[in-house]
């Protein structure tokens, strides 16, 4: 599973984000000290994933390095055997690839 996760992380870091039609949606900026998740909810095929891509693009334009973003699409067939116990492996693989970010305060997963 770790090999597949490493491949997925590298693919995300190397590929460009999809072209976007900018939506007028404001996602609040929270202080870094507040470790909260932003959750996009809604019906299927209404643009949740592309809204997330838009948020990632905004972060990149503000100067965040792409390596500090982590996105994994769990609908990928290579992850069909992914189990809840494998979630720790995501962090393990990411920090094996980027040990310089272990104490970083601005990672976005």
- Report on the biggest sheet: none
> Proportion of β residues?
under 5%
> What is the radius of gyration?
15 Å
Low-confidence segments, ≥5 residues, pLDDT <50?
A: none
Q: What is the terminal separation in angstroms?
A: 18 Å
Q: Please report the total strand number as a whole number.
A: 0
Structural class: mainly alpha
How would you sum up the global shape? globular
SSE arrangement, N to C: HHH
Overall pLDDT metric: 87
Give the helix proportion (percent range): 25-40%
In DSSP terms (H or I, runs of 4 or more residues), the helix count works out at 3
Give a description of the structure:
It is built from three helices and no strands. The protein is mainly alpha-helical. 6% of the residues are buried.
Outline:
The protein is mostly helical and 109 residues long. The chain is 35% helix and 0% strand.
Keywords:
single chain, 109 residues, mainly alpha, 0% strand, globular
Fold blueprint:
Layout: H1 2-14, H2 48-61, H3 87-97
Helix pairs in contact: 1-3
């Amino acid at each position: 599973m770790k090999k597949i996760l490493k491949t997925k992380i590298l693919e995300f870091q190397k590929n460009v984000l999809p072209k976007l039609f900018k939506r007028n949606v404001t996602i609040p900026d929270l202080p870094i000290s507040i470790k909260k998740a932003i959750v996009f909810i809604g019906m299927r095929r209404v643009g949740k994933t592309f809204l997330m891509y838009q948020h990632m693009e905004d972060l990149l334009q503000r100067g965040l390095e792409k390596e500090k973003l982590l996105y994994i699409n769990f609908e990928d067939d290579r992850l069909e055997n992914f189990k809840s116990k494998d979630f720790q492996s995501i962090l393990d693989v990411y920090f094996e690839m980027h040990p310089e970010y272990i104490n970083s305060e601005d990672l976005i997963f």
